Amino acid sequence: MIDTIRKSFLVVMATFLTSFMASAHEKAIADFLNRIGGAGAADRFVTLLDPSTAGPDGAETFTISTSDSGKPMITGSSLSAITTGIGWYLNNHAHINLVWNNLTTDLTSAHLPLPAGPETHTSRADYRYYLNYCTFSYSMSTYTWDRWQKEIDWMALHGINMPLQIVGLDAVWRRMLTSDYGYTPAQADAFIAGPCFQAWWGMNNMEGWGGPNPDWWYERQTDLARKIIARERELGIEPVLPGFAGTVPSTFTGLTGIPSLNQGGWCGFNRPDLLDPTSPQFEEVAANYYRHLADVMGPSRYYSMDPFHEGANISAFRDKIADAYLAIYRSMDAAAPDSSRWVIQQWSWAPHQYNALLVPKGRMVVLDLFSDGIQRNLNRYQGHETVWCSLPNFGARTGMMGRLATTIDSYFATAASDSCNLKGIGATPEGIHQTPVAYDLLYQLPWLDTAPDLDSWIEGYATARYGRPDSLATAAWRLLASGPYNCPGALQGPHEAIICARPSLDVKTVSSWGGSHIFYDPATVVDAAYMLLDAPLPESANLSYDLTDVTRQALTDYSKTLLARIKEAHETGDSTTFAASRDEFLQLILDIDELLATNPAFMIGTWTEGARAIADEIPTTTDADRHWLEADNARTLVTTWGPEIPANRGGLRDYSYREAAGMLRDFYHRRWTTWFDRGMTEPEGGWFEMEWDWAHNDSTRYPTEPTGSTREVASRLLAKYLPRK
After folding, report:
1. What are the two backbone dihedrals, phi and then psi, of residue 631, each rounded to the nearest 5 degrees?
2. Could you read off the pLDDT of 76-129 as tens digits, one per residue?
3. Which of 55, 415, 467, 555 is most buried by a 10 A CB count?
């Protein structure tokens, strides 16, 4: 009798739990649809979570069909599969393309066509990775919670199930240092970087810059981290959390007596110290770190650790480097046993860094960080699970660049090879909000059985982008796919806009590690711009963005022609041509500024006011807090990056330049005007003082609302500078 009662109870509980989980999943998807499509959007779809529909070895699967009630129906084997299916349906059936410039739409009244028949897609990638430490600084450091919600929804639409998550790392460290190691809040704050510089602090490259952070900041970060992680998991997304690889403040030994190793410098900054992972104290510090990490962020299946990053000093334990990697792994294993995986970035590894591969199989995931740019044999990772990654942007620098054909060919060739244990695909950009086409393509690939024909894919993309088929729009995108989106080699992001460079008659680079060589025929971009202007398309957010971007690129490319003309006139003594070309060059900068002011995605105010808006989330903040966020962080990052030595000798200035309205007019145009006015010589003492002054003068506020018509301004400027042939 008792056994019968027990069995009945268990059946009832199982039924209850199943029902509860189903209800929670249904609410998560309904909330997601209502966020991206407006209140009531969920009522226009039927969604079903059915794990039994998974493919071989549990591969995630979604099916698009028609429900019995006559609505689009998305069935998925996982929550991530369902949201991916929704994104697939919107793009390929409803012709609605939700991207960074257009993250929400009105699905309550949109035409939602029914599929001709069931359409099923199964993922060949267990891991669909997203983000780079740098992204959190170059693009996400000015995100409010409202903006974060939209980013997470974008991830869900694109099938991302494994994003990096470092928000709140600063709060973890402050808690540990003050509660476990006797640091005062001020001493901890001297170690922790400010909002726009936490990527490099988190990667053991620098400490303190952009800070000190006020007390309210850590409370805000703790709350934000928990919201981000909860929302990601609500949608079936498992975040990769920052693990412990031995970084400690440079003051650690002096304040605690625990020995740590000086790591020298990075680009003119002092690095934090490093604990010897083989030392007796490492295990204790690591355990404390993971305890506070769990308190702020909770546990995870994945932990990101990149020891000895970009030239770290390992001389003190070079002979036991293998033991060091194993010690780092064991500390993670102790904190999250059995199921946890170490996610490590392969980025310019020195030979000793391959000792990381001694970690047991099944407990490490290797991100091949730049698979689309540097062709490698992924069998170098000795059977560890590997993720093929695209790195489409460096520094969040503005410009059109991608490797669409290479991405297709390389990913499918790698997936078909038996030489590596390929388990995923990912994007590891230093900055986002550019080149959305590259991400739309990348994250569709794992759901396709065979490599798509690029021409056909472009036709579908253009249709989704603008809401209906159009031959001119398709032709424009095919031109772009053959031009700026067909980048050869390992160029670090788009070729650089010389109008944003420190002035010279022969600009080679804007940033220290970039290049200004145009690798395609500039006429392809000009022709594409005119095709988009001529296409009989309805006005939309996507069309406005693309007209702005393509026209900007055409005019920016033309600036190289003008500068070459100025140089030739100067060298030949042709003063008339010199003066006319100089004036045209300076006016071109102002005209591009006018163009960019027609779209909020290209306005510096979106960046600077976003930083200030963080303080607006907290009732007790002051104007000093807003200055710290905007001037000491957001403005500094996109100009000098650091103080004078890192900026100039370290090469960091202009690394994150932004071809943006307001900044072109007040920063780059001023630099060029000053240079010409001084007879083509730089100011006494160099450019740094002028750059620093703009960065720290936040009395000038920049708008976030666009002005003017993109179509009108683009048409006028193209006719002015690049008339039809």
Report:
1. -80, -55
2. 999 999 999 999 999 999 999 999 999 999 999 999 999 999 999 999 999 999
3. 555
Q: What is the pLDDT of residues 188-243, one digit of tens each?
A: 999 999 999 999 999 999 999 999 999 999 999 999 999 999 999 999 999 999 99
| Residues 6+ positions from 41 with CB-CB distance below 8 Å | 33, 34, 107, 108
Task: Tell whether omega for the bond before 163 is within 30 degrees of 0, i.e. cis.
Answer: no
Are 209 and 137 in contact by the 8 Å Cβ rule? The answer is no
Say if residues 148 and 230 touch (Cβ distance below 8 Å).
Answer: no
Helix, strand, coil percentages for the chain (3-state, nearest 5): 50, 10, 40
What pLDDT score was predicted for residue 5?
61
- CA dihedral 310→315→317→320, nearest 10 degrees, is 80
Return the amino acid letter for 697: N
Nearest partner of 459 among 447, 468, 446, 448, judged by Cα: 468
Neighbours of 122 (CB within 10 A): 19
Task: Return the structure tokens found at 416.
Answer: 């078909």
Question: Which domains does the chain carry?
Answer: 29-122 (3.30.379.10), 164-368 (3.20.20.80), 477-601+707-721 (1.20.120.670), 604-695 (no CATH)
Could you read off the pLDDT of 451-501 as tens digits, one per residue? 999 999 999 999 999 999 999 999 999 999 999 999 998 888 889 999 999
Q: What is the 3-state secondary structure (H, E, C) of 94-130?
A: CCCCCECCECCCCCCCCCCCCCCCCEEEECCCCEEEE
| Under 8 Å between Cβ of 274 and 261 | yes
